[in-house]
Amino acid sequence: MGTYKYEAVGANGKKIIGQIEASNEKEVRRALRSQNIRAKKIIPPTIFEFDFGQWMVENGYANAIAQKELSQFTKQLATMISAGVPIIQSLEILHRSEKNITLKVSIKKIATDVGEGKTVAEALQSQKGFSKLYCNLVKAGEVGGILDQILNKLAVHMDKQEKTKAQIKSAMMYPSIVCGVGALVIWVMMVFVVPQFTSMLKESGQEIPWITQFVINVSEFFGKYSIIMVPAAFVGLMMFLSYIKTPIGKISWDNFSMRMPIFGKIIIKGNLSSFASTLATLLGAGVSLIEALDICIETLDNSVIATDLKEVRKKIVEGKTLTEPLSKIEYFPELVCQMIRVGEQTGQIDQMLSRVAEVFEQEVDSLVTGMTKLIEPIIIVVLGGIVATILVAMYLPMFMSAG
To answer: Whole-model pTM?
Structure first.
């Protein structure tokens, strides 16, 4: 993509000199023909006019748009529109100040499309990084003349969603890191420390207790096969990660993760919080319930919950209320179903869903805090016990000979 200069003849026969953004000369000619302009001379962009950032984006070398950056862009755009700044001017200002190359290029293309007569929602749909939820809410905001309000709601929703995802990742990451470090310490002891004791015990010729022999055997196994175990573990991990990305593998992993002690509840509550918040935002913007459910299903990370919500959507199409099929989902709390039922009866379902999302967020907070307090001492005791067993096993023969 670059700036092509051209000399052309208009429909009235007059000479036209101008420039246009395009990917190649063919695209330039096509764009000019659509305006009844016949190109006579086209000058491609020089190396000094080359847009390196755009080249990186088009060839997939640039970083993707992070949720935090998209949220910040949304807030800034909402502020400018609220202040009465025209949409194209707002986009141009944001384009100049944006640091993320991918988002910067997208903003430029959105501004160009809007300038050519497209709506903001139509311009967003052609760009990567803007979800179906984002585009539909912007469309609803444009139709209702409340784009700034919708953008503010969207930014709040994205912040909440990102917070919930971060909590779930944090809950999963902490024990993984601690266990990984602990496993590394045990491996170092087995491969480098225990052999030092083993040579001393063999030289002394004294009787070796069964627990000491067991530790020595494990140490010898680690020393002999570590060179195979480490790459095998890495290959196994890569195969596992590849498997859970397949449709069958993802369903199996999601089923397993939902049944895990403590972690399962965090995953379920986190996904239900995201579902309730997204649905509340969409319904509040005037999107129909069926369309809102379609978008919610697409945004969920857990395939099992997404499948259950597809069944909910099917029942609503058949004439059921939202509460009826939700109450049949075993992991969906009865209290929450009652809250949604009240929302349906009072015509304030979007407000009630917002409260439901807040309830789930608070529960995720409590679960993550409780899990951290519970799992930390368990991990310390287990790892400490293993290290203590190794040390006792090595020093036991010395104590026995001294006695």
So the answer is: 0.67
